[in-house]
Every structure is written in structure tokens, then in C-alpha cells.
């Protein structure tokens, strides 16, 4: 019973927070026109209408596939480049200014370039997600590679371990926490910037539907799509990413115990 009490307390706190938010929202909506701030009831009706429509799962699926494609490509490129920079100090010093440029340019600018280069297509969103997520993963993997103890690397060489063995047994355990931290951050940013890209350069997806509803002043649908997006991100975070992180780094908990 004691082990369940913190979880129960957390659930009660979340429910109270949701109730307070809904109450403030409802009170504010009563003082404003519905096209400016629709109330929870109108937003719920819009959610039901979206659920009953035939485009909901298509738009969610196409947005998710674009985000996942850009994220996986960013993971592959960012991890390989991060390992290369972490293993070679001269290479890192040469490319460090370029990485600063990538981290400085905003997602909106990448979206404009993507529209010019790829037009209205899936490649536009995938490119923007990639250019946003890749520097984050690269930087974290690079930082993780720099923390690898040089003595362990020398020991691996003395045992004549190959590069793949050294990477798997020496670098990977050290880099994984850094990689996962960067990957979670990159995936969250990827979701957000995908909406920007879809708003500017797509004919379907959640971002496109948000722009369409905004152009038609269907504010209740804007709120409905926004709440749906937040729910999806919380579901991915709490149902997939956090459990995966606990599973991958369960050895840390055993060490503390």
C-alpha cells in the first residue's frame, strides 16, 4: 500500500491541476467570443467531430511518419558524426564553427529553404526535422565521446580489440546516456518543428489542418488539434520514451541500491 501512495498522490495532483486549468479556461471563455476563445464544451464537440471524420488518423499517421523519418535520419548522421568528432580532436576543432551555425539557424529558416528546394512534399517536413534534430544528437554524442576514459581505450588497444569491439564495449556504455538525452530532446523538437513545416509546405498532416482551421477562423478546431497533439506527445513521453529510458539504464538503479 505504501509503494502505491506516491503514485496515487501524483495522479491526484495531476487531476487537480487539470480541473483548475479547465475551470480557468471555462471562466475566461464566458467573457470572450467563441471565435476568440472557445470553451471546453465547444472544443470537446470539435474533438468528437474530428474523431468521427475520416481524415484524423491519416493526418496523425502522415505527421508521425515524417517526424520519425527525419528523426531516424538525424539519429544515424548525428551519431556517426558525433563519434567521429569525439574520437578526433583535430576534426572536432575544424568542424566546431559549422556546428554552431546549425544550432543558430532557426527551424523557420530551414522550412523556407526546404520549400524552395523540395516544394510542397514530404521531403520538406523531413528535412526540417532532420536539420533541427541532427545537431542536438551530434552535440550530445560528441560530449559523451569526450568523457570516455582514455585509459580504457588504451587497455582495449593493448588487448588488440578491433574498432567495433572498442566502440561496443568502451564507447557505447559511456555515450548511451548522453545519446538518449539528446534523442529525447531532438524528438520533442522534431514534433514541434514538423508543425511549422507542415503549415508552410504541406497539403496534409496536423500542421496543415491547424493552418486550415486558422484560415477559416475555426478556433474550436485549432484548440482541438492542439489538445490532441499535446495528448499524443504526453502519451509518447510517458508510454514509450520514459519506460525505454528506465529499461536501458536500469543498471544505474541497481548501482544505487
From TrEMBL:
Domain ABC transmembrane type-1: 60-240
CDD domains xrefs: TM_PBP2 (cd06261)
Entry keyword annotation includes Transport: yes
Gene3D superfamilies: MetI-like
Entry GO CC: plasma membrane
Topological relation to the membrane, as annotated: Multi-pass membrane protein
Keywords for this protein: Cell inner membrane, Cell membrane, Membrane, Transmembrane, Transmembrane helix, Transport
Any single Pfam family the record assigns to this protein: BPD_transp_1
UniProt subcellular location: Cell inner membrane; Cell membrane
Transmembrane segments: 7-28, 67-86, 98-120, 126-142, 170-191, 222-244
Source organism superkingdom: Bacteria
A GO biological process held by the record: transmembrane transport
InterPro entries with a match to the protein in the record: MetI-like, MetI-like_sf
PANTHER family in the cross-refs: ABC TRANSPORTER PERMEASE PROTEIN MJ0413-RELATED, ALKANE SULFONATE ABC TRANSPORTER-RELATED, MEMBRANE SUBUNIT
Family: Belongs to the binding-protein-dependent transport system permease family.
Protein name according to UniProt: NitT/TauT family transport system permease protein
UniProt source species: Sodalis ligni
